[in-house]
C-alpha cells in the first residue's frame, strides 16, 4: 500500500508546491458561491415584485429556502462518507444544482405565460411551481456539496504538506468571500436592467441566468480536473456511529430503568456494553458542546434577515449616492466588504487591546458579546424604520376620502368644503397636500376666485384619492374632480408620473420612450411607471406647436402630476405637483446596522467555529460542523415562526421583538457559559489511550501468569 501511495503522489502534478488539482477546486468554489449568493441576493425582490407576494409570504419562503440549504449538508455528508465518495457526490449534486438554477431562471421569464403581451404573466402559478422546484433542487445541490468540497480539497495534500494545506483553506475561504462579494454587486445591476420580448420588465432572467451559467462553469471546471484528483474511498460516517452510540445508550438505559440496576456516572455509559470507552468519551465531549449550541439559532434568525427584511427596508429608501445609484439588494454587499476589513482589524487590534487591559475574553464571552451586538443592530434597524415610517404617505381608510387642490388659474382661489368642514386658500399655479374627510360628512364644496363663485355637489365612494382642479376664466370658475387611482407608494424606488393639460388645445404627450397619448384641456392622463433617479425629455405636440423640456429628477418612490402650462419658443413650461413624496431616508443610514451586525458576526461566527473545534475530538469535527450548520437552519425556521405568530403591523416593532428575544437568549447563554468547563480533547484522548495500553498490558500479564501457573 506504501508503494501505491507513493505512485499516486508522484503522478500528481504540482505548482508552487501545491497539487495542481486544488486550483480546479478553488475556481469551482468561487463559481459556485457566485452562483448561490448572486441568486439569493435578488430572490426576495423576485418573490415580491415578480410573483406578487406580500412582504410576509416573501420573507417566509426566503427563510424556508435558506433553512433547507443548511439542513441538506447532513444528507450530503452521509452520501459522500457512506456511499458515493466526495468526488461523485460533488459531481452528481452539482448537476442537480445547475438544473435547479436553470429552472429558476426560466421561471422568471415574463413572456413564458404572457400570451396577451400586457406585461404581466397570465398564469402566475406556472412561475410559482417552476420557482419552487428550482429552489428545492438548488437547496439539495448547494447544501449537499457544502461539506464535501473543502474536505475534498484537504484530501489532495500529503501528510508532509501541512503548511500548504493550511494556506489552501485560507485561499478557499477567500474564494468564497470573493464570489459572494462580486455576485451581490453584479446580479442586482443585472436585475435592474429592462428586458423582454413583448414588453420590457426588470431582467430577472438575466439576474438568475448568469448565476446558472457560473454554476455550469463550476461543474465543467471541477470535472476537468478529474484525472488529477486524489480520490479517497468512503470510510463510513462518524455521525452514524455517534447516532448509533447515543441510540443504544438511551435504549439500554430504558431497559435497565428499575432500581435493582446500579446507576452509572453518565447516561452515555449505558452504551459501554457495545461501544468502546474512547467513542463514548468523545461523544460526551461533543454532546457537551452541542448542548451549548441550543441558544445559538436565535442569532442566525436575526443575521439572515439581511437578505429579507433589511433588503425590503432598503426598497423604501433613497439609493442615490451621487454618481452611483445603489439598488436595494446591493446593500447586502456591505457585509462581505466589512468582513474583509473587520476580521484582520479585530484579530490584530481589538483582541490584543482587550488582552492588554487584562480582561479574560474567553471564546464563550466573545459569543455572548456577538449576540448582544446583533441585538443592537436590530435596535438600529428599528430606529431607521421609525424614520422611514414618518415619510410614508397616509392613504384613506374605507370610510374616508382624500382631496388635494391644484389652482390652474391666474388668481388665488378659496375652496369651502361643506357643510362647514374646512376652508382652504390656494395661490395661483400652486397645489395643496391631500386633505382627509369622512366621506359621509362631505356633501358639497364651493370655489371662490376673484369675484366669481362656483358651488358643486359631490358624491364620493370612499377609500380613494381625488384631485380638485380649479381654474378661473372670464365668466366663471371651473372646478373639476379627477380620480387618482394610486392607493400605495410605488415600489422598488420607481416613480409614477401623469400629465395634466392646462393649455387650451389637446396635446400628444411623451416622456422618454413612454407615450401618454392625447391629453385634452383640463384633463389628466393615466399614471405611468418610471425607474427612479432619472430625468427624461418631455415632449408636447399638437397641430400648432412642438415643445419640449427635460424633466426634473423625480427621486425614488414618488408620484407626480406634471402640469403643462405653456409652450413658448419651442420650450415647454411645466409645474410639478407632488402626489406622493419621494423616499427621503438615505440608504446610507443602513450602514450602521450592517456594521454592528458584521462586528457581531466576526466575534460570534469565527469564534464559535474555533471554540467548537478546540473542544471536540479530532475525528468528531464533522459532527460539530453538522451541528453548527443545523443552528443556521433552525434560526431561519425561527424567523418563520416569530414573524408568523407575532401579528405585528409595524415593522419597527418586529425588529424590536427580535432584538428582545435575542437579548433573553443571550442572558440564558451567558449563564450556560458561566458553568461550562473548558477541556483539552487531546489530553483526554491521551489519558484514554494510556488507560487502554495499561489494560492491555494487564491482560497480557494475567495471561502470562496463568500460563506460568499451568506449567
UniProtKB/TrEMBL annotation:
Pfam families registered for this protein in UniProt: PTR2
Sequence segments annotated as region (Disordered): 690-711
Topology versus the membrane: Multi-pass membrane protein
Lineage top rank: taxon: Eukaryota
GO cellular component, one term: apical plasma membrane
Comp. bias regions, Polar residues: 697-711
Keyword Chaperone on entry: no
GO biological process, alphabetically ordered: protein transport
PROSITE patterns assigned to the protein according to its UniProt record, in alphabetical order: PTR2_1 (PS01022), PTR2_2 (PS01023)
Transmembrane segments: 6-27, 34-51, 57-78, 90-109, 124-145, 166-186, 206-225, 285-303, 337-354, 366-386, 622-643, 655-676
The reaction(s) this protein catalyses: L-methionyl-L-phenylalanyl-L-methionine(out) + H(+)(out) = L-methionyl-L-phenylalanyl-L-methionine(in) + H(+)(in); L-alanyl-L-aspartate(out) + 2 H(+)(out) = L-alanyl-L-aspartate(in) + 2 H(+)(in); an L-amino acid tripeptide(out) + H(+)(out) = an L-amino acid tripeptide(in) + H(+)(in); L-alanyl-L-lysine(out) + H(+)(out) = L-alanyl-L-lysine(in) + H(+)(in)
GO MF, one example: symporter activity
Coiled coil: none
UniProt entry tagged with the keyword Cell membrane: yes
Keyword vocabulary terms for this entry: Cell membrane, Glycoprotein, Membrane, Peptide transport, Protein transport, Symport, Transmembrane, Transmembrane helix, Transport
Cell compartment(s), UniProt: Apical cell membrane; Membrane
NCBIfam families attached to this UniProt entry: 2A1704
Assembly, per entry: Interacts (via extracellular domain region) with trypsin.
Role, per record: Electrogenic proton-coupled amino-acid transporter that transports oligopeptides of 2 to 4 amino acids with a preference for dipeptides. Transports neutral and monovalently charged peptides with a proton to peptide stoichiometry of 1:1 or 2:1. Primarily responsible for the absorption of dietary di- and tripeptides from the small intestinal lumen. Mediates transepithelial transport of muramyl and N-formylated bacterial dipeptides contributing to recognition of pathogenic bacteria by the mucosal immune system.
Similarity field: Belongs to the major facilitator superfamily. Proton-dependent oligopeptide transporter (POT/PTR) (TC 2.A.17) family.
Protein name from the UniProt record: Solute carrier family 15 member 1
Gene, per the UniProt record: Slc15a1
